[in-house]
From TrEMBL:
<keyword id="KW-0645">Protease</keyword>
<feature type="domain" description="Peptidase A1">
    <location>
        <begin position="1"/>
        <end position="329"/>
    </location>
</feature>
<dbReference type="Pfam" id="PF14543">
    <property type="entry name" value="TAXi_N"/>
</dbReference>
<dbReference type="InterPro" id="IPR032861">
    <property type="entry name" value="TAXi_N"/>
</dbReference>
<dbReference type="InterPro" id="IPR033121">
    <property type="entry name" value="PEPTIDASE_A1"/>
</dbReference>
<keyword id="KW-0378">Hydrolase</keyword>
<dbReference type="InterPro" id="IPR051708">
    <property type="entry name" value="Plant_Aspart_Prot_A1"/>
</dbReference>
<comment type="similarity">
    <text>Belongs to the peptidase A1 family.</text>
</comment>
<dbReference type="GO" id="GO:0008233">
    <property type="term" value="F:peptidase activity"/>
</dbReference>
<dbReference type="InterPro" id="IPR021109">
    <property type="entry name" value="Peptidase_aspartic_dom_sf"/>
</dbReference>
<dbReference type="GO" id="GO:0006508">
    <property type="term" value="P:proteolysis"/>
</dbReference>
<protein>
    <recommendedName>
        <fullName>Peptidase A1 domain-containing protein</fullName>
    </recommendedName>
</protein>
Length: 329
């Protein structure tokens, strides 16, 4: 699931170049020959033109003899990619033990991947939840009584998460999202960012509390590991976090560079590169972050969500500086 991209794709047979073996719980690689409703998208179709024009597809080609539209998608600066054919098929959602409602889409547009490079080698493909017309969510949206989606990503595979399409029954508080530009992604209005350090609340970003300005829009990207901040906001974060971590026996690890905040204890430094830094003995003592959004929603990030352990750099903040950001977060 990726809110930072729009084109959905699955690994397909025959995999003419490279595909990874899918775990049993994911199911077998999709075989189009078993589907009577599977169709290729032609090169001269409006679908093919739209995808090449709007989805930031790095290169779009065509199998002219077969009249099949092709796509190329890359992720994370090129560390992962999918290359294949643009196709359609009937998509049915729901009908399982936990879902009463069944949604059926006759001509769902997606990618049939023939060359896949992905980091964990566990995925069957990607559901793109971006804003373009042919994202998974935008194609399903006309079938919904309430245009919304929500999700909860578990910390590991031993725990269960969820993706909810339509009305949310989890009891969560909704907030508005805005189409991002120039990329086809969603943004959310951030009206405040505070951090609680040793019981003292410090404001890093403050807004009107209701209507976000362009400078306070956050791109929602489920595939991003870090939350990127403006340099000025990150500077305020440094001023608040570094003294707080020093009071807990941590010191800044300058090897992480100026765009990240990572910390080591004295014991970590003595054993640097010889063993992995151990987790904090008391996570609850670390700073707590609070992010406020439009419609009065406040998200509290406990320390285990705001910090992560790096095998070399130590205990790192999940917030990082992006010097190329001109506005937003």
């Amino acid at each position: 699931m990726d809110t930072g991209s729009s084109l959905s794709w699955v690994q397909c047979r025959p995999c003419t170049i490279k595909c990874h073996v899918q775990p049993a719980k994911v199911g077998p690689i999709f075989d189009p020959s078993n589907s009577s409703t599977f169709r290729h998208v032609g090169c001269s179709t409006s679908i093919c033109s739209y995808l090449g024009r709007t989805l930031r597809i790095q290169s779009k080609g065509c199998m002219e003899r077969e009249d099949i539209c092709l796509y190329t998608m890359s992720y994370g600066g090129g560390w992962a990619y999918s290359v294949g054919k643009v196709v359609t098929d009937r998509l049915v959602l729901g009908g399982g033990e936990t879902t009463r409602t069944t949604l059926s889409l006759a001509n769902f547009v997606f990618g049939c991947s023939m060359d896949t490079q992905y980091s964990t080698h566990k995925e069957a493909g990607i559901f793109g939840l971006g804003t373009s017309n042919y994202s998974f969510f935008e194609q399903i949206a006309p079938l919904l009584s309430y245009k919304a989606f929500s999700y909860c990503l578990p910390s590991d595979e031993a725990h269960q998460g969820y993706l909810s399409i339509g009305p949310d029954s989890s009891g969560g508080v909704p907030t508005s999202m805005f189409p991002g530009t120039p990329r086809p992604v969603y943004s959310i209005g951030m009206t405040g960012l505070t951090v609680t350090v040793n019981g003292e609340v410090r404001s890093l970003v403050s807004g009107s509390g209701s209507s976000p300005s362009p400078s306070s829009l956050m791109v929602v990207d489920s595939g991003a590991k870090l939350t990127l901040l403006l340099a000025s906001t990150f500077g305020q974060l440094e001023d608040a976090i570094i003294p707080a971590m020093e009071s807990l026996g941590y010191s800044l690890n300058t090897a992480a560079g100026q765009n990240q905040l990572c910390f080591l204890t004295e014991s970590d430094r003595q054993n640097y590169l010889q063993r992995k830094p151990p987790p904090p003995s008391n996570w609850s003592a670390l700073p707590v972050f609070h992010i406020s959004f439009t419609l009065g929603l406040t998200l509290t990030l406990p320390p285990k969500n705001a910090f992560y352990l790096d095998d070399i750099l130590g205990l790192c903040s999940s917030f990082a500086r992006d010097d190329y950001l001109e506005s937003g977060t």
